[in-house]
Amino acid sequence: MGFDHKPGVRLGGNTKKEKTREELLEVVRAERAARNDVRRKATAAVVIQRFWRGWMARAALRRQNLQTLLQTYAPFVAQQEQYLTSEQVVADLLPRALMLLLPQAPGMPMDLTATRHAGSTPTAAGT
């Protein structure tokens, strides 16, 4: 009747297609390391971009302040009978001059020729 048939040997977990626990953990560790590497690279890129954008913004502000300073106060040097009020000195001249005195970082010198030859003639403040 079929009861005399011997059941076959099952090799369910012993095939090469299935990964062992150690192999699976190694794959998971490698994937985690790859994700962490991508995250570190993205963070580093953001830090570099933030530094560069800040650097460029400060350089542009420095050039703008120098140009405004030269356009506004150059006539006072040429015409010695003109005077500045204390409000002009405190509110405008002093902050701009102090910003220009901040140390310039090496490697990117300030271009003074671009501001000197802006094409506009300076006018006296208050006239």
Brief write-up:
The chain is an all-alpha fold and 127 residues long. The protein has helices at 21-78, 86-101, 112-116.
Notes on the protein architecture:
This protein is mainly α and 127 residues long. Helices cover 62% and strands 0% of the residues. α1 (21-78) packs across α2. It is built from three helices and no strands. The model is unreliable at 112-127 (pLDDT under 50). The protein is rod-shaped, with a radius of gyration of 36 Å.
Topology:
Layout: H1 21-78, H2 86-101, H3 112-116
Helix pairs in contact: 1-2
Keywords summarizing the entry:
rod-shaped, 127 residues, mainly alpha, 0% strand
Relative strand content: under 5%
Quaternary structure classification:
single chain
Give the overall pLDDT as a whole number: 76
Number of helical stretches of at least 4 residues: 3
The computed structural class is: mainly alpha
Largest sheet: none
Report the C-alpha radius of gyration, rounded. Answer: 36 Å
The proportion of residues forming helix, as a percent range, comes to 55-70%
Name the overall outline. Answer: rod-shaped
What's the number of extended β-strand segments? 0
Q: Helix and strand string, N-terminal first? A: HHH
Poorly predicted tracts of residues: 112-127
